[in-house]
Records
---
Amino acid sequence: MASIPNLNAFFNSFSTTLNSPVKQHLKNVYGCLSLSTVAAASGAFVHMYTQLLQANLLTTIGTIGLLIALMSTPDNGKNQKLRLSYLLGFAFLSGLGLGPLLELVVNIDPSIVITALMGTTVIFVSFSFSALFAPRGRWLYLGGTLMSILNIMLLSSFLNLFVRSFFIMQAHLYLGFLVMCGFIIYDTQLIIEKYHMGSRDFIMHSLDLFIDFVSVFRHLLVILIQKESSKDSRKRKD
């Protein structure tokens, strides 16, 4: 896949920590990530401002189906366009799935969407820089810790179906946000490590980062909605 020209300057700063083949691979990864975010934004737009498609059970099944299709289609060097279409289709439907949440946010305060998007971008770039500048493999130990926390959160989510604790719900929101930020660092370094181990599948590697980006964005949206709702409640009381 041709590298995105405006990514060249970004990767030139890593000449001391990344060799040329790794930098070229990362250009392709972030190029796919850029296309995926555009596809997701298009999906969200279609849900909110057109009647062509709406987020529902069928689109959710389609999202899962495209993800399975991408993961079950190995990279053989000749099917990049097919696998890229799976990735962009998955991203589009993922954005479509964000539509109901975005509609809620727009009804409360449209500026929250821009704030959340800018915040997510700053967080993603900052944590990516931290991973790229760090010594090779330094943050890979986070994988086990992050997965353990996710498993604990999954278990507590099941328990909270019966307990219905507001504290547990809030803990999940903020802890989940921190965990996804951690996955940005972990997945970035894991991509580099996978490349050194022989994996050149930049499409699948970009999928990991896309999921991280969307997850951070979703968590940030909910956090900002809650803060805005709390402000409105205090104003009514005053």
---
Amino acid sequence: MEAMRDSDVIDGLSIRYLKIFGIWKIINDYRTTGNKNMILKIQVIITVMVTLPSILSQFLALLVIEVDIQKATILNFHTLPPLQALCKHLVFWFNIDSISRLYNLMRKDFLEKSVNDIEREKVDFIFRKFSKETNRTCFLVFMVINVAGSFILLFPGISVDYILYHTGKLSAVTTGRRKLSTGWYPLPMDTSPCYEIVILYEGFFVTWCGYSILVFMCLYYQLLKCLHAQFALIVSHVSTLKIDYEYEKNSIEYRFTNQQVYSRMYRILQDHQKLLSYAAELRSVYNPLVTMILGVGMSLLVIAVFQFLFGQTGDLLFMVRAFFYVLYQCIEVSMFCLGSLFVQTASSDLHSAIYSSDWYKADVKFRKAVQMMMIRAKKGETLTAIRMYPVNAETIMAILQFTYTVATLMSRFTE
């Protein structure tokens, strides 16, 4: 594979954040050398060193300190974001070969066999439309995560005394110094210098995990939207296959016109097959990622709903913190579910596009070609979770229903 240049990227698509955080260089270095560069290795090492102690400590806390169901859910607020950051880094590390190849979806000449048959204005319009939508969504993610991270860093709101010695209502504990996260650590956190060490660790921890979640969320979403854009371009191209003139069946002009249209359709068929292979690879790479996102998303929403409706924490800072957690998790789940739905819709719209063409004027050879394409597009391409579960708009409703059911069940246990 050759390195990706800025001029190769779909018009209007922002890759600035990829360059700032070194992802662009990581991808290009791997595409040219086949090796993971030092930037990626350092990032993965830091992520593992920062997140694993925190994650393991929360599971150990359930055996060491006194907890009830409310306190256990509060402790898990601390566990889920680093778990997300770690999983996203590991998916990138173990699938960098596929991800580097999937970056071809960002090329404006990805459909190289048929893109020259399309009017340049139409190509630019489709790509710019999708670029604006993608950039807008990534900017929203950037704002939400930065506001959430800034709030956590500026307003420490978890009492060390509550984590170490109390259960029940969070707002009832007014003693003890405040820390950034809800996590417990195997240290005397209420004394110096352990308290200061924990604060420094949590400050770096929140910043690094926020960076990881932000960058990789946008990176994976951009590739998904590029797949959507390429499918939309093929659909637009197929619908414009026209035979402008009626000729005698046996005339030279009729045969020439049909041959032209068939040649264009054949090139589209080749590009469609190429796009389907990329869609299958993207689905395979994203399967563990989407499974993790939906699993963590449901867990976080269950905890948040429980705390909001039934936990009676009464602590304003904790409630605001929980609101930001829920907000970014809802955005992330929606990004992948709706992005998958858009890809599915665009890939299955090929049926309507073929009917919009002049297939009924063309010869048998053309009709057989479009029939093959319709068969391939019948199901539609979509992301999956747990290998077989399709991810789309219905997934969001299922998550919300499951969240409320589990939160209600947990509230009855507390009663």
---
Amino acid sequence: MGKITAKDIAKAANVSLSTVDRVLNNRGGVAEAKERRVVEWARKLKIDRALNQRAARTLRIAVLLQRPENPFHAAVQTNFEAAMRDFPQFNLQFRIHHIEPAKPGATAGLIRSLLKMCDGIVIVSAADDDIGAALREFGRQGKPVITLVTDIASSERFAYVGPDNFKAGRIAGDMMGRLLGKGGGDVLVISGMLSMMGHEERESGFRAVLNERYSDCRITDVLESLERAERAGDLVFSALKRNCAIRGIYNASAGASSVVNAVESLGRAGEIVFITHELTDDRRYLLRKGLIDVIIDQGPAFEVRTAIEALAAFFGRKEDPPASLMTPIHIHTIENC
């Protein structure tokens, strides 16, 4: 076969020669669907200048997540804000929108307001019928919806990017059973919001392992912090006052520092096994001090990168999608923090 030319790409992509010229030379002014076909065929036909080019049209991606007072969401936001610098070849512009987890109606309204303004959505949110309906409406316009960290089953999303939260909960349960030992004991579970699929899956996995292998470990309560750090501490303080037999705490969400403060204020530090998620700076410090026993981390930087690569593949700006959308789980103790 002879040398591939722009004319070959135009024929394969079913567009005009001038359209191919505009795309390959980054002149803009080409509809998204046509641009995507041209880039895809240029890659298939091995036109070198198309392989690593910066895509001509800036695509606007809305990122919906909690305010950065939550350290994990702060890390997610920071990584999306750095995306234009870190992945310039994709030409994806990420705009952060903060949502309140306890106000699903407002979140659904925000999604609908973004229908004509954005080319895609990445969202970290509780599962809710109104939110799911709004995301379905967004997706039916041919625009990708990515649920991040916690899935939304009714959203008909393009992709879920994040950990296997049921497995993460099972790991937490296994760690709790091993650390409490043969004597077992009462265990308190603090969830952020059970309407968040990720949190519900963590609690289910945690409970399943205790039932299967550590029957002497008894879950006394599953309480919701509503993703508020100070509430997590208050719930732990009240539970420990009511029940001095609690020997383990599994916090599946925000508020690790508040939980530690509650435990210390009651003179129970060193007596209670504390397991939580997300290796943020404040939790790393508590882990090194021996005030947290195990942290199960999912790597927000890697999750953001995976979501960006999935979007780039959807828009034809990356040849292959990520090898996996399920992100790895890491276990941290005082020895490897």
